[in-house]
Amino acid sequence: MSSTPPVPGSARSAAVVQAEIHALLQSTGGWLWGPTRERYEQLRDEWIAAVREEMTTAA
C-alpha cells in the first residue's frame, strides 16, 4: 500500500485506486480507525478525482 499522496497531474486510474481501496478494506476487515481511516479518505478523494478525470476525457 502506497503511503504517499499522489502528485497533482500524475493521477492513477480509478480502477487502480479502487483496487487499493479494496485491498485496504480487506486487510482491516472493514474497520477503519485512525491512520487507516485517513488513508481510506485520501484514497476515496483520489478515486473521485480519477473518475471525474476519466469522465472528462471520455466526453
Structural features, described:
With 59 residues, this protein is mainly alpha-helical. The chain has a domain at 18-58. It contains two helices and no strands. α1 (14-28) packs antiparallel against α2 (34-58). The longest helix has 25 residues, at 34-58. The chain is elongated and about 35 Å long. The mean pLDDT is 87.
Quick take:
This protein is mostly helical and 59 residues long.
Distance between the termini: 31 Å
Question: Describe the biggest sheet?
Answer: none
- Strand % is under 5%
Mean of all residue-level pLDDT scores: 87
Oligomer: single chain
Mind telling me the C-alpha Rg? 12 Å
Give the ordered list of helices and strands.
HH
Overall shape: elongated
Count of helix runs: 2
Q: Given the helix and strand composition, which structural class is it?
A: mainly alpha
Number of strands: 0
What tags apply to this protein structure?
single chain, 2 helices, mainly alpha, 59 residues
Chain-wise SSE layout:
Blueprint: H1 14-28, H2 34-58
